[in-house]
Amino acid sequence: MQFDAELLLLAMAPVFLACIGWEAWHLHRTRPEAGIYSWRDTLCNAALALLQQAADKLAWLAIIPVYAFFYDHYRLLKWQAGWVSLVVLFVAQDFLYYVFHRCSHRVRWLWAAHVVHHSSERMNFSTAFRQSLMYPVAGMWLFWTPLAVLGFPPKQIVAIVLINLGFQFFVHTQLFGSMRWLGYVFNTPSMHRVHHARNDRYIDRNYAGVLSVWDRLFGSYVDEDPVDPPRYGIVEPLYTYNPLKATFHEWGSMFADAARVSGWRNKARALFAPPAWAAAYHARMAGMNDAAGHSREDAIVFPTSREEREIL
């Protein structure tokens, strides 16, 4: 089945903007003390979305021929256009999104792009716009390559990726409760609030794109607990509304860490270990600098735990 997702999302743009405007008005009227919206944060989110959209337009020009190569030379199946192929494509892409998303929280190279989406300390519809122009560099597109091998044309792959991301706009809100009945199958705002939280019990949980079944199958699901409400943002906070700093701060930190540590294993960890490795390294260095008054990076070896060595 052929469909033009770009036109669909273009048509949805006024809906997205209307949802942001209504949510901001409603929250200002009903919960003004909560500070869920801020002009500076919202404008930063909008600027990041524009940068990401421009980068994606250019990236697809290079990536679509790669999918076409695998589709033309290595595809395993030939699908008849129709609802069956569309459903298979949707489920397969959503599973691959789960894999990509989980890897993005467990591999620092991918996290360097994905951290942009998590760096705001607010959670509202405009947070969905907070994306990184560096996803193509990080390698997000590689995760959809199996779809071409399964026999789906490149334009359909791009379309289903965009539709998946479009759905996720609607889970970035604090307006709705648990919606537990819906959450047995689909991602919900409650589940995604957990994902954006930096509380210890919530970190690296609820990676769902559209379907919640993957989290339940692979042990990454956790409920939102009203006793422990989500605290949004990242473990090492980003105190800026500058969209360029938001985009590149983790890349700069990652390469600086790789240059600073000694030994190829530690350099590899600086690039590819879970983000917890970097947080622990920075905390350890800050403690040493406070105690000794100077830096001793090159003398340190950083063993990682079994959990930190896991990719999934």
TrEMBL record:
- Main subcellular location of this protein, as a coarse class: membrane
Please list the residue ranges annotated as the Fatty acid hydroxylase domain: 87-220
Segments spanning the bilayer are 6-25, 82-100, 132-151, 157-177
One cellular component term (GO) for this entry is: membrane
One GO term of the biological process aspect: membrane lipid metabolic process
Its placement in the membrane is given as: Multi-pass membrane protein
Provide the alphabetized UniProt keywords.
Answer: Lipid metabolism, Membrane, Oxidoreductase, Transmembrane, Transmembrane helix
Q: Which GO molecular function entries does the Swiss-Prot or TrEMBL record give?
A: glyceryl-ether monooxygenase activity; iron ion binding
The record's subcellular locations are: Endomembrane system
This chain belongs to which protein, by name? Fatty acid hydroxylase domain-containing protein
* Organism in which the protein naturally occurs: Paraburkholderia saeva
